[in-house]
Write a structure and sequence with these properties.
Elements lengths: L1 H27 L8 H25 L4 H8 L2 H4 L1 H10 L1
Length: 91
Amino acid sequence: MNAIGDEISNQIEAGRKTIVRSLDDMREIDVRQVPPAAYVAAGMIGVLAIGVVGWMFYRSRRRRTLVERFQEAIPDKVRELPDRVRKVRSS
């Protein structure tokens, strides 16, 4: 039973040493190693720009519905026809 207790104590001590070493390493981190806010902001803007370009590419490559294709094929004068017809009937 004492061997098991010694093993557990050794593991706890090893864990404490690891934590202390990690804390010491964190204290030694130089401020220059942490990226400044400008780099983070530039990275975010870059990711946003890539997203916008991807969305634009998706929109240009996606197949349009049948209704969208018909509406694009109809000339503007024909689309305005119902408005003209309504104006003539009301007069």
